[in-house]
Amino acid sequence: MSTKTEVSLIVEKNWCKGCGICVAFCPKNVLEIKNGKVNIRDLEACIQCGQCELRCPDFAIYLGGK
Amino acid sequence: MPSQLVKEYFRTENLPHIWCPGCGNGIVTRAIVKAIDNLGLNKDEVCVVSGIGCSSRASGYLDFNTIHTTHGRALAFATGIKLAKPNLKVIVITGDGDASAIGGNHLIHAARRNIDITTIVFNNNTYGMTGGQYSPTTPTGDKGTTAPFGNIDMNFDLCELAKAAGATYVSRSTIFTANMLIKQVENGIKNNGFSFIEALTICPTYYGRKNRKGEAVDMMVYLKENAINIAAYDKLPKEQREGKFVIGEIYKSKRPEYTEEYQKIIDSFSEGV
Fold it and tell me: Is-contact A5 A28, C-beta < 8 A?
């Protein structure tokens, strides 16, 4: 089984404006823009660094439990 | 559902905010809130004062004591609040135009008095709310609605201005280096005196489009590639400084704080009674 089951990355789609900042600065290429909103493409690759949450201008993506 | 941080410190019923896609103001606002959270301040002890402009809309989204004031006058209101309630942590949120054009006079005198207020300037190099007119921080040669052939004014270095006027904590960061910005806001709040923090942010809608700077991500990359930490900048030969800008803690000093000096005057009279 995956060891990444505890990884929790949460997207508030209603708040996302699709600027792509989180996608561009994710070091593990976890994210993509799909239909104008952020989409978690590969959660397995997420290292929970929080770079997306740090730079999301719309508070629309964050690590779980924080 | 929003994050714990957002739930705790934002008026979530007002979100999503009005800022454009890719606007950096949300990154600066979150950094301020994160700094307050890191310091463990009680929400009721914090007062956020803003002026007019895109950045100044931030106060409406924040769940502290907040006041959205008139153009350029955030520091004047903040000075009154701090004198009436010296125990409050007063934080001013302002933009480059609000702080250095309309409110330029308030800025230099608040700095000169060394009143314990932390001012965070969201510098996006333009007047975004009114359609992209050039501001005192629009770089020379760059375009704005009011400078279609390029701005002929020299732009202010806001940190040098604040330092010269007497601020006792002066720093600059960018929305790319947001962790540095969080630390600077913490240190600015901790400083017992006037703290001035310039947050370099982006306006992809007006400044970016008018100056062909690309999308939000391109503008973030520009900040990443051209910001140089102060220690490295000092060692850089002059010719390599072209187009670069300093980030980091630029100036720190100690001077008597205004409300404490004011209290001493009051105390001197009560002693005589």
Answer: no
